[in-house]
Structure formats: C-alpha cells, structure tokens
Write a structure and sequence with these properties.
Distance between the termini: 52 Å
Strand content: 15-25%
Keywords: Apoptosis, Cytoplasm, Cytoskeleton, Metal-binding, Microtubule, Phosphoprotein, Zinc, Zinc-finger
GO molecular function: zinc ion binding
CATH topology of the largest domain: Ubiquitin-like (UB roll)
Subcellular location: Cytoplasm, Cytoskeleton
CATH architecture of the largest domain: Roll
Order of helices and strands: EHEEEHEEHEEHEH
CATH superfamily of the largest domain: Phosphatidylinositol 3-kinase Catalytic Subunit, Chain A, domain 1
Protein name: Ras association domain-containing protein 5
Shape: elongated
Number of domains: 2
Organism: Emberiza fucata
Largest sheet: 7 strands, mixed
Structural class: alpha+beta
Amino acid sequence: QNVTQTVEEEKPEPPTVQEIKQKIEKYNAKVTNCLLMKLNDDGTYTGFIKVHLKLRRPVTVPAGIRPQSIYDALKEVNLAEMTDKRTSFYLPLDAIKQLHISSTTTVSEVIQGLLKKFMVVDNPQKFALFKEMRKDGQVLFQKLPLTEYPLYLRLLAGPDTDALSFVLKENETGEVEWDAFSIPELQNFLMILDKEEKDKIQQVHKKYERFKQRLQQTLKEARGKPG
C-alpha cells in the first residue's frame, strides 16, 4: 500500500562538524559497494544517491539528437539547446540514476541535474523529488522541499535503500495543469494516448476472439458426444 505524507517534519538543529564526521564514519562502516562519503576540510561532504524515475507521463526531449560524447561532457556542451525540434516519449519506470553530489546540493539542483542527464527539456517545476520509506508493510512517500539536502537525508538514514530511497515523480498538485505544457507537447500526448487506446482495443478484441473460438470448439465437441 502506498501512502503519501504531506505533513512537514520539524527539522532538528544543524549538526556540528564533529557530529558530521562521526555520522560519516558510521555510514561508511555499513557501505558494501564502495560508494563512500567523504568529508572535506571546509566541513562539507560528498557522496552518492540513487534516484528511481517513476514518471507516468511522457517527457519532452530533443528530436534526433546524438548521444552526448565525452568531449561534450568535458566542455559542458548542452546538446538539448542545439536543436528546436522536440519529441516526447516515456522513460522506463524502472530507470535508476546514480548521482555524486555534495552536502550543499539541494533538491532543486538534483531535479535539474537529472533532467539534464536525460536531456529532458520540460520545465523542472513539473517534477518533484520524493523520499520513499517502508514501514509496517506500507510504502510511504513524502515530497521533499526544493531547499532540502538529499545527501544529508541519505547520511541520516544510512546506506540501506529499504530505509530510504529517492524517487522522481510528476509534481502533482491535484489536477494536471495542462496550461504548463506547450502545444507541441499536448499534440504529442494526444498521439500517444490515441496509440495506447488502439492497442488496448486490439488486446480486448484478441482476448474475446480466443474465448469465442474455445467456446465454439467446446460446443462442437459437446454436439458430437452421445446425449
């Protein structure tokens, strides 16, 4: 059962550098995949988080864009800005992205970084980062404020993803705000929905056609048997 929590949690006092150091040592002692956290001289620290992408609606990306090369990455070339052509498609629901971030990286920056890595050109405000927790057989989701620091939450929870994981979802505010989408995006959505509708109709037709054939075969066999 999935439950979304909307109540804001009270934030404790910021920890001292010594407390952070102790937490990092305790965290690293539990790590089994070499994804350690590292404390910097200025009191900040770096580490890794994994984000599950659970997007139910299609995203907009540049059409016909070539994959980003190492040269582009080093030069910070934004391929998405090099074409005006756009297309929409669904990201796999089981997609997971690992990010190396700092303790000063906010939720807003994580969302923007994820969209950039997948070359998604949609407005970042259409998306939200949630923390997912499992408790008493329930899966609890809580939307994170844009100013929250995901790496600090990871540090507090430890490396176990069952205790805490991050999920990128649509920024639900009740009804879908269709005004936030451009006309080409809306047209692409209609095309995708039309295709899905036709596929569903075809599946239903095939299902009942098979049922009809089996029923006819059963009746034929029953008529051939003595009363």
